[in-house]
Amino acid sequence: MTIKFCSQCGSEKIELRSPPGDDRTREICGACGHIHYVNPKIVVGSIPAWGEQILLCKRAIQPRYGKWTLPAGFMEENETLAEGAMRETLEEAGARITVEKLYASYSLPEISQVYVLFLAKLDDLNYAAGIESLEVRLFSEHEIPWQELAFATIGEALKRYFADRAEGVYAPHFADLRRTPKK
Amino acid sequence: MTIKFCSQCGSEKIELRSPPGDDRTREICGACGHIHYVNPKIVVGSIPAWGEQILLCKRAIQPRYGKWTLPAGFMEENETLAEGAMRETLEEAGARITVEKLYASYSLPEISQVYVLFLAKLDDLNYAAGIESLEVRLFSEHEIPWQELAFATIGEALKRYFADRAEGVYAPHFADLRRTPKK
């Protein structure tokens, strides 16, 4: 259960059952009938490039405090995917980017998240750690702290990025990332 | 306001303000402090092909009752994008597909939705209208009911699909779809 009270009538009679014509269990108010839908969230971000280098942020927040990540965060209401990627890059890395291509779409079904990462070019070198970052810096491929990356999504995206760069073609791709193998 | 009562403590003291370190207005409980985040939803679906033909569904539900659409719907918790596309295609069109490529990503910022559509091949011709469809049938390009499509996203995806087919390359793409031009 994610809720204890109905958001519409305040009743504490929350029932776990399937609405008519639906085969999924939902949190439904036993008093007013309101269905509290919960859906996956989008994490949107960028792979900001400056020549041969990529900008990474060292996290100043949990989870994965002190680990390195691409600038990314929860997409907000009333913005586009690209706007979200630009906003997160500005918030976390103080950096302005030009979005080029939607590059990676990763499903994380165990935590109901979808990552969407864009290829982007840094507009200039005026970057700086935002409130959620300890440090922001450019990395060449051989400098990437592979063992110190915050999330599997970031390692996957960077691995593909450098492999695609070696091939000369950045191919949009999707993948499913699970901590435990699918049953 | 999307809520009237706190989902965690039941209080009616819901305030619209920004949490510390956040520049967005959120619905926050004045009693227990719980922040009720709201984020965009993902609509996931497929472009199911059978040779030169595409499978469309005539909607049996609002909005756009009686209009034609690709099988698509809200992504659910604990599924992947591809699983969601397969599930929606089975639910709405009674059809089993093999997902090939993540093809279209559309942001609809005015209604906080992101459409993700996959290229797919029908596994067989055993399709049938699900509970949310009046009719399901295959269309050749010249038969597509362009004036009777349910959503702008569907027209955009089909337009790109047939253009790409003529070129011989299906290029994953993203776009922003607004009803009113951006200010």
Provide tags for this entry:
elongated, 8-stranded mixed β-sheet, alpha+beta, homodimer
Q: Can you offer a commentary on this structure?
A:
2 copies of one chain form a homodimer. In chain A, strands 4, 5, 6, 7, 8, 9, 10 and 11 form an 8-stranded mixed sheet that branches. The first copy, chain A, has a 3-stranded antiparallel sheet with strand order 1-2-3, with no helix packed on it. Helix content of chain A is 16%, strand content 36%. The two termini of chain A are 23 Å apart. Chain A contains 2 helices and 11 strands; from the N terminus they run βββββββαβββαβ. The first copy, chain A, has 183 residues and is an alpha+beta fold. Chain A has helices spanning 81-93, 152-167; strands at 14-17, 26-29, 35-36, 41-50, 53-59, 68-69, 72-74, 97-108, 113-122, 133-139, 173-176. At the A-B interface, helix 1, strand 8 and strand 11 of A face helix 1, strand 8 and strand 11 of B.
Brief rundown of the structure:
Two copies of one chain form a homodimer. Chain A has helices spanning 81-93, 152-167; strands at 14-17, 26-29, 35-36, 41-50, 53-59, 68-69, 72-74, 97-108, 113-122, 133-139, 173-176.
Topology:
The structure is a homodimer of 183-residue chains.
Chain A: E1 14-17, E2 26-29, E3 35-36, E4 41-50, E5 53-59, E6 68-69, E7 72-74, H1 81-93, E8 97-108, E9 113-122, E10 133-139, H2 152-167, E11 173-176
